Amino acid sequence: MRADNISALPGRNYPLGATVNDAGTNFALFAADATAVELLLLDDSGGTLAAYNLVGHTDLVWHGFVPLIGPGTCYGYRVRGTYDAASGLRHNPNKLLLDPYARAISGAVRWGREVFGYVVGGGDDVISELDSAAHMPQSVVVGDGFDWSGENRPAVAWSDTVIYETHVRGFTMRHPAIPEELRGTYAALAHPAAIEHFTALGITSVELMPVHHFVDPQHLVDRGLRNYWGYDSIGYFAPDKRYSGSAEDGGQVNEFRSMVKTLHGAGLEVILDVVYNHTAEGNEMGPTLCFRGIDNRSYYRLVEHSPRFYTDVTGCGNSLNAGSPATLQMIMDSLRYWVSEMHVDGFRFDLAAALARQFYDVDRLSAFFDIIHQDPTLAHVKLIAEPWDLGEGGYQVGNFPVRWAEWNGKYRDCVRDYWRGQSGGVKELAYRLTGSSDLYQADGGSPFRSINFVTAHDGFTLRDLVSYNEKHNQFNGEENHDGSDDNRSWNCGAEGETDDAEVLALRARQQRNLIATVLLSQGCPMLVAGDDIGRTQHGNNNAYCQDNETSWLDWENADQSLFDFVSRLISLRREQPVLHRQDFFAGQGGRGQRRQDVVWLDEHGNEMSERQWADPARQALAMLLNGDETADHTPDGRVVRGDTLLVILHSHHVDIEWILPRGWGNNWEVLVDTAQPDTHEAPHGNAITDSLPVSSRSLMVLRRV
Predict the structure, then answer these.
(1) Is 386 a catalytic residue?
(2) Is 493 a residue whose pLDDT tops 80?
(3) Residue in 38, 255, 269, 386 annotated catalytic
């Protein structure tokens, strides 16, 4: 240590991070292989105001107490120990390190040779002696004070949940009703104009793309781009300052809390997309910003017998080691912090299969799941898995434990294929429409375990999905090699922009077909911000680096007709118990039973035969939902029964006449017709008794009257 260092008071080894009281601040850092830890108090430029040796050392935690400092103080660590890349040890006291438990982070990485632990160009086995302090963001001491009085957490039942995946910055940057100085911030997302959109649409839960402090990778910065999506976390307790309008260091914390409180006041849940599978430090040639320089062997999964290298099942250079007690504790402490101190209502876990990998295969009974399930703080929050990673055996749709919902990739693929006429029949579609019982019923699950979606942040927008046969990612600077290649023709005319009215009408109908299917299926629907107003990214299906008008919602050209259509469907879903059941249907596929809760019908009004279920060319199917067999129970114990509905799906390119089923009532009225979306009253007339015309590539909903 430097001669001018002084020793901090011993302090406590728990809690980890910087903890404020009236007398000063306690600092605690887990570093199992360190030989010494230095705490630096910093000015805005990274200069050292004071340096303290942490002399307390308990249970692998270095700790110390510094009197008379409090919220707003910027700090960082230098950690001494062995640098031996071949052994997985990468301590370098020349590198200023972020606190893994920092509740706020100020500034950004200023890329240069200084932030790398090794000599750039000389191989990662040669330690760098360049000081990184002036190139690093800083950890910030944060207090706990916030007035939560009057807050009511929505606690939306899973069966009532409608998720809206959005981006703090992208949702608000071009909104004309939000003051320009607020746009792109947490405060903007809590602005009355934003809340009005959420509530008018009818969604219940706002799912935010990553807000944990993240890094703009050097390769993007060098190309003049940014990490817009935010999937490169470096601070799992810190809301990113780039989404804050506060000039005060640490002010982003209370701005985030104010946003949550305001959204809760409007009855809206807040769900965070969290990235506990990897960090922004990349592989062995990446920078030393935090975890690598503190305790590389605890925080990361290293290649067995060759610990210089990182096990990578994420495609991002490294994988966090959730099997390590210290890493698992950090993840759990982070989750508890966001629930107890920031009042969020749930989490969507990016590449969640990576967290289950204690050894080689994905283990659904791993320590990660066991600990989450027994944790009282997390007992009532929503847990959503992206149930795959990029490693072998990483596709785990349907295999996560009870209490976990999953992004149902099989639902997405099946519904897309059906509406573009490439499904190979309707048998799988029936499972997807009814909550995917083939995936979630066997272990006592419920339909809501299936998060139903056809688009997400990753991929084409809904409008682009039906408008482009190929991706157009040239502006990402990767020669259009990035992004998925899985789109196939929608037979909607020429690709891309067009003035052809017939082509535009068909594309618009296909958008309605897809989003209507999501909202009429059992399970939990998820919409992507902008899909409700016809947002386009002009064919870019991987806009992760486009922090500009490519990604930001274009409110000026919003498709009001589409918004009204989606809003009416969400309202219909909410009003009809048969569209959001809490359990699976009991009568799927049965014949001749008057009291079936679901009946499958063909276009002749007859129950589907085994031959029809097996027909790969079939493109027509009707789902009769028996309202007499489904009810909602209100909080005061009343039973509310809904209507009997008939949902007709017809993806063929010719119009047909649909015969209504006998024995289920004599009169029906049309509630929804994707071929005539702007007609609020029944477009085919009331009291339909025998049959009705069904347009090509359309979906209809009828109600028994």
Answers:
(1) yes
(2) no
(3) 386
